[in-house]
Design brief:
This protein is mainly alpha-helical and about 170 residues long. It is about 50% helix and about 5% strand. The chain is built from five helices and three strands, in the order αααβββαα. A three-stranded antiparallel beta sheet has the order 1-2-3, with helices on both faces. Helix 1 crosses helix 4 and helix 4 packs across helix 5. The protein is elongated.
């Protein structure tokens, strides 16, 4: 995957708010990559105004204190690399492209596993052990398995945190 293709993959994804069964998809995909979200500490900022500047200040203070800090901005920005920063800096193009490729591969793996599970259910009616952890909400023919913009960014950030051992 090239950087151009990575950006196109994100820009062509479903909008932020779309996505039936989004939490089930993300939880399942996180299990496929050994639940990196359970191995990091995080701070979540919510509210109407000031989240971006607050996260930038927190990241700056924490990184200057010796922590390896990864931040995720869920806004739709002009440069998608601004959505994920490590110690207040964008990922470089190869790192960013690699993380998006990893997410794309995860979605392909999930779609293949769901396809196999659906075939097993049509045939024998029983899921084999290796497919039994697929959430039932993802099974059946009417469920969208296409990633949303926010899922791609979240999973890319989690993959980065896992690979590069981010503290926060």
């Amino acid at each position: 995957m090239t950087y151009h293709n990575a950006v196109k993959y994100i820009k062509n994804a479903q909008p932020f708010s779309a996505g039936e069964h989004m939490s089930e998809r993300v939880e399942y995909l996180c299990r496929l990559i050994d639940n990196p979200q359970k191995k990091i500490k995080y701070i979540r900022l919510a509210g109407t105004n000031g989240k971006t500047i607050c996260s930038e200040m927190l990241a700056s203070v924490l990184s200057l204190s010796g922590y390896n800090v990864c931040t995720l901005n869920m806004s739709e920005l002009d440069d998608v690399r601004d959505n994920i920063k490590v110690n207040c800096k964008q990922l470089d193009i190869p790192q960013f492209t690699h993380q998006i490729q990893t997410v794309s591969s995860l979605y392909s793996l999930m779609r293949e596993k769901v396809k196999q599970a659906n075939a097993e259910l049509e045939g024998s009616g029983v899921l084999p052990e290796d497919l039994s952890d697929i959430p039932t909400a993802l099974l059946g023919g009417d469920t969208s398995l296409s990633p949303t913009h926010s899922e791609i960014l979240l999973l890319a950030m989690l993959c980065y945190c896992k690979s590069y051992k981010c503290d926060i």
